[in-house]
Structures are given as C-alpha cells and as structure tokens.
Design a protein that fits this description.
The complex is a heterodimer of chains A (252) and B (285). Chain A contains 10 helices and 10 strands. With 252 residues, chain A is an alpha/beta fold. Chain B contains 13 helices and 2 strands; from the N terminus they run ααββααααααααααα. With 285 residues, chain B is mainly α. Chain B has a single domain, classed as MetI-like fold (Orthogonal Bundle). Helices cover 78% and strands 1% of the residues of chain B. A two-stranded antiparallel sheet of chain B has the order 1-2. The radius of gyration of chain B is 23 Å and the shape is globular. Classes of the chains: A alpha/beta (252), B mainly alpha (285). Chains A and B meet through helix 2, helix 3 and helix 6 of A and helix 8 and helix 9 of B.
C-alpha cells in the first residue's frame, strides 16, 4: 500500500445511545481508491462522513478517537473545519447541484474562498469541467440551470465542483446509486482517471464496483471494521469468515 | 350508485366549499356594482388623480389617500420585510431547538393580537416617542409604518420560514462540504433556493399592510393631504372608508364604494403576484 494520507485510530462514534462505529482502525493510502463495503447500516457512510467532519451537523453525535490527516488529528481542538473540507471534498449519493447555473455551481467553492478575479475563475471552471469530462457537454450552456442537466451529468458536475476547490482527497458516498449502468460506467472510468492526482475513498453497495475500481477494500459489519486489505486479496482470499460470507453473497 | 347518505355528505361538503368562493364573488360584484358606475360618472381620472376630497361640495379625489396607502405600506415593508426574513433565517438555520420551541409559538401569538391593541400601543407609546424625539404631530406615516411593520411579521416569518425549511438538506450539505461557512451556505444557496417563497411572504405581508384599518386609523393621524415627510399625518384608503361609511349617503357613499374597488383591485394584484411566486417555487422543486 502507498504511504497513508489518512489514518483512522480507535474511532468510536455514538448517535445518542446508538454505538455506530466501534473502535475502527483504517489507513488510507495516497493516490489510491479505497472502497468501504458492507451491508446497509454497517456504518460505512458514517465512517466516510467522519473524514470531512460532516457528522458535526448531526445533533447528538459524539466522536472519540482520532482521524489523522497528514499526521494531524482532524478532531483536535482549533481545527479549521471549513479549511479542512476544502482539502477533503465530498460527492454525495444523490447528485445535489445547487439551484444555480452550471457555471456558478463549479465556481461556488471559489466564491466561498473569496476569489473574484474573472479570468482566474473562468479558467478554474473550465479546467474543473474538463477534469470531470463534462466540458464538451456543457460548454455552450454554462448559464443554464444545473438542475436541467441529465442525472449523470449532474453527478459529474458535483465532481467538477469538488475539483474546483483543488482538494487532496475526494470522498464519494455511493456516487452511482442513483445512476443507470452506462452512467455508472462513466463515473467509474472518471474515478480511475482521477486516481492519478487524488486520494479517493468510496462507499459502495456494489461488490463488482468495488472489485473493478478499488485498490484496497475495507469490509465493515455492524459498526466494526472486520477486514481491510488489497482488493484482490480481500475478494479472493478473505481471512475472516464473515467477509467471505458477505462477498459470496450469503448475507447482506 | 352510491348510497344516499354518501351523496348527501358529498353535496353538503361541496356546498360548503363553494360558499367561500361564492362569498368572494358576491363581495366583488357588490362592491363593483356600487362603486364602478360612480367612477365612470365622475371620470376615472378625476377620481384617482385629484387630491380634493370634500364630499359636502361634491369633490371626490382620492389621490392623497392612494399616496398615503402606498407610503404607509412601503414603510411597513421597510420595517417588516428585513426583520421578518432575518427572523425566519435565524429560526431555521441558527437557533437551537430549545430557542425555536419558545419563539415559534410566540410569533403565532403575535398574529392573534387584535389590531386595536396594536393601535393602542401606537397611540400611547410610538406616537409620543416620535413627537418628542423627531417632531411633528407624532400620529404619522412613520408611526403607522412602525406599527404595521410589526403586525406583518407573523405573515412574513411563517411563510419565509416554510420556504427556507423546504430547501433540501442536500443543498446545505453540498455547500458545507465545499468548505462554506454556515452563513455562506445560507446566503449563497439556501436563500437563493427559497427566494420565490420569500418573495411571496413579503407580498402577502404587503397585502395585510394595505388592508389593515383599525391600527392605521388610530396612529396615522387621518389628515387628507399628500405627505411631504414621514412625520406628516395621512389618511389611507382603508381609514377613509371606515371613518366615513357610517354617516355617508348618496354620492358620498358611492364614492366610498369606489374607493373600495380601488383597494380590492390592489389587493387582488398583490395576491396574484404572491400566488405566481409560490407556483414558480413548486414548479421548480
């Protein structure tokens, strides 16, 4: 595995009385795709949302342990959460472009950072749209409402929106679950391309997807990290009986 | 064939539902029948654009009252719209649940206070304050605008709050995940997504302000003049109708009905705009 860029150490998370993550440990390698797999409700999305502190928004959520990003604990006192989310971007399960134009969606992160210079905003928007393989489709309708794009283009717009902020890590929470197989294939291809420059963590329900695109996989069950390792090894020679049962489709 | 009991219930409910529509039509027809012929006879131009209102001598110009209604309403919007929208944003986006639980019912309570009580507070508190600190008679455009501004708060807050509350969570999450602060996510995304609902709340609030009568009679001073400053006394369209209808006969009475026609049309236009704004919102989401 590549040098780890994120290290999750003894992470425990409670939603009120519910113990959602139990002593989770995981290392995420730089410029690799790490897939979090497991049945619904196993805590994989919750774990993903710990990495950019989106769980901060959930009332009654308590977190213990550490998530180290480039050695520094994200949950330490005085961490700049907004700055952190610019370095660790996120693509959501359902495409969620803002009710703004295509252009303004991509420029959003720049506006947030206070960048106003017209020429540089234009340049970043074009570069990001090209990076998400969307430029050729939307270059003539940058002013059109983003919500009028087809669903798979909306999802790639959400990727472009993240790219514009120039993050180091991109978190993807079941990014293809709202898309048809052809659109899914496009997003997967895009992810493989993005891997050259970004660290990607993806939550997926889809075993084939995990095996097609990920370098490493981590299997979770009921809030526990059961097994993590190279995807090929995990899928062909799982060391834990529960992993084997899940992968071979005996439950989940 | 439905059983008889079923049909009786159905027709009763239908009748009740249509009675609301019927009363609206009846009111409209009645006001227009009483007021429209008068307007035609006097000439729409003389009626709408003359400020000479002396019913005893046969002068019926309502321009000063139209101007008064417009100024008082705009003043009320200046007070009520920012306060109401800010209140709705605070309640939905920033207030902790415990605060929201206390404030929301209080705002609804505000809507239940009779307008005569607002007028009373205007006369006893607001008007004297204006007289002492800013001059003039105290009973003025400014006093009416302040009182009406508070009176429309429940309308503006509850409708904008619904609009803000119906903005999908995913928009907020998307903005925050891009590193936006709470306030950036609100003003760059949430308010944009909710803007038609917010516009509707302001327009409906405006409709309330135009139509309010009792509080305005008590605090606006009721002088039929075109105001030159916010400290001047004015008489709005609604106030004039309420003050004189009791004693008016003949032409004078018809003139007041014609004034009602002008108000009616104004309010219909505002409500139409509000509905169009709301419809736009539901069409988009």
């Amino acid at each position: 595995m590549a040098a780890p860029v994120i290290q999750i150490e003894n992470l425990n998370l409670h939603y009120g009385a519910f113990h959602a993550l139990k002593n989770v440990n995981l290392a995420i390698g730089a410029r690799e795709i790490t897939a979090l797999i497991g049945p619904s409700g196993c805590g994989k999305s919750t774990l993903l949302r710990c990495l950019n502190r989106m769980n901060d928004l959930v009332p009654g959520c308590r977190i213990e342990g550490a998530v180290r990003f480039e050695e520094k604990d994200l949950y330490a006192r005085g961490v700049d959460v907004c700055g952190l989310r610019k370095r660790i971007g996120m693509v959501f399960q359902r495409p969620n472009p803002f009710p703004l134009s295509v252009f303004e969606n991509v420029a959003f992160g720049l506006r947030v950072s206070g960048l106003t210079d017209r020429a540089s905003v234009n340049a970043v928007v074009e570069r990001s749209l090209r990076g998400a393989w969307l430029w050729d489709y939307v270059k003539d309708k940058l002013g059109a409402p983003a919500l009028e794009l087809p669903l798979d283009q909306q999802q790639r717009l959400c990727v472009a929106r993240v790219l514009a902020v120039e993050p180091e890590v991109i978190l993807m929470d079941e990014p293809c679950s709202a898309l048809d197989p052809i659109s899914t294939a496009k997003i997967e291809e895009l992810m493989l391309e993005l891997r050259a420059a970004y660290t990607i963590v993806i939550v997926t329900h889809n075993m084939q997807q995990a095996s097609r695109i990920s370098d490493r996989s981590a299997f979770m069950l009921m809030g526990e990290m059961i097994e993590a390792g190279g995807t090929l090894g995990l899928f062909t020679k799982p060391t834990d009986k529960r992993t084997e049962d899940y992968i071979t489709g005996r439950f989940g | 064939m439905k059983p008889v009991g079923e049909r009786v219930v159905e027709w009763t409910l239908k009748g009740l539902a249509f009675s609301a529509l019927a009363s609206l039509l009846l009111i409209a027809v009645f006001i227009f029948m009483e007021g429209a012929p008068f307007m035609v006879r006097l000439g729409v131009k003389d009626f709408l654009f003359s400020s000479d209102w002396r019913p005893q001598e046969g002068h019926y110009g309502i321009f000063a009252m139209i101007v008064a209604s417009v100024w008082v309403t705009l003043g009320a919007m200046l007070v009520g719209a920012p306060l109401g929208i800010a209140g709705a944003v605070f309640l939905n986006e920033f207030a902790p649940e415990s605060v929201r639980r206390v404030i929301k019912p209080m705002i609804e309570l505000l809507a239940g206070i009779p307008s005569v009580v607002y007028g009373f507070i205007g006369v006893m508190v607001v008007a004297p304050l204006i007289r002492e600190h800013l001059g003039g008679a105290g009973l003025s455009v400014l006093a009416a605008a302040l009182i009406l501004g508070v009176m429309i708060l429940p309308t503006v807050i509850s409708i904008s709050s619904d609009a803000i509350g119906s903005v999908p969570r995913s928009y907020r999450e998307g903005a925050l995940a891009l590193g936006a602060t709470r306030w950036q996510s609100v003003h760059m995304v949430v308010l944009k997504a909710a803007r038609s609902g917010i516009a509707a709340s302001v327009i409906l609030g405006m409709g309330r302000a135009v139509g309010e009568t009792m509080a305005v009679i008590m605090v606006a001073g009721n002088a039929v003049t075109i105001p030159h400053s916010p400290l001047d006394s004015v008489c709005t369209l609604t106030a004039k109708i309420a003050l004189e209808m009791g004693s008016a006969v003949g032409l004078h009475r018809q003139a007041l009905f014609a004034t009602g026609v002008v108000l009616f049309i104004g309010i219909m236009v505002l409500n139409g705009l509000a509905m169009a704004a709301m419809k736009k919102r539901s069409a988009r989401t």
